[in-house]
Amino acid sequence: MSQQTIQLYLKGAEANQSDPYRKGNLIVLPEKGRVIVSGDLHGHRRHFEKIVDYADLENHPETHVIFQEILHGGPEDDYGGCLSYRLLQDAIRYKLLYPGQVHILLGNHDTAVVNQGTVMKNGREVNVAMQEAMKREYQEHFGLVHQAMVHYLLSQPLAVKTPNKIWISHSLPADPYVESFDLEIFNRPYTAEDTRRPNPVYLLTWGRHHSPEALCRMAERLEVDLFVLGHQPQDEGWAVVGNNTIILASEHSHGCLLNFELERLYNIELLSERVVPLASIL
Ligand SMILES: [Mn+2]
Fold this sequence. Notes:
- This protein has nine helices and 14 strands.
- It has helices at about 1-15, 45-55, 85-95, 110-115, 125-140, 140-155, 200-205, 210-220, 270, and strands spanning about 20-25, 25-30, 35-40, 65-70, 100-105, 120, 125, 160, 165-170, 225-230, 240, 245-250, 255-260, 275.
- The strands form three sheets. Strands 1-2-8-9-10-12-11 form a seven-stranded mixed beta sheet.
- The chain is globular.
- Manganese (II) ion binds near residues 107, 109 and 231.
């Protein structure tokens, strides 16, 4: 059982590194096809399943599905331990079935797992709670399972870039860091150290409250027109920020996904029309 789990994480890491669209830490998507983007899932299995059904990858070989922030939240064991690591494992299995079509991005909760820190969600500590559940499940093998999980998390790409100039990442550096943010992080292998404050992966995944001006400047620096982000909770499931950014959330009953084509040009209005409430998918 523990051996299989360790193997799953190692195979998932290999699949991330050998993703046919991976260039450095980016996924650079091709000229043609469809993209389905999930916002934060935080253990929401039903929405994960809906996205999998909606994408129907088996019958749509040119469709790509992007996930982020799968951990921390959702079902608990009898002792209040967080079981979201099981949803991540299922997402890795999905990637292994469709390695060139499923792309799972690094989120800040992943960095909390890497650094074994505490992290709060809705007023509750979730990272130690997840470790406790994993200890109950994997017993004396917990250390090796956790190590394999960290290895997997650090293999994840940081962002997706499309030919029609849309950038998808968990977040972006907050306003004070927009100018100084080191874009080399997308080209060189990143390490656990990079996920710690104030290093670039930390800035990328933890940034919040971006001004419209900062989002414009970041778009210039990254040579894109539009951003699709997660990370910041959205009661309505999505929101537009400034004139170039959509923030998605997929972790609650108003959760949404985004569904767009790679061969079309979008502005923020046209892209907003491609937001789909998960409740509308039966
Ligand atoms: Mn987040």
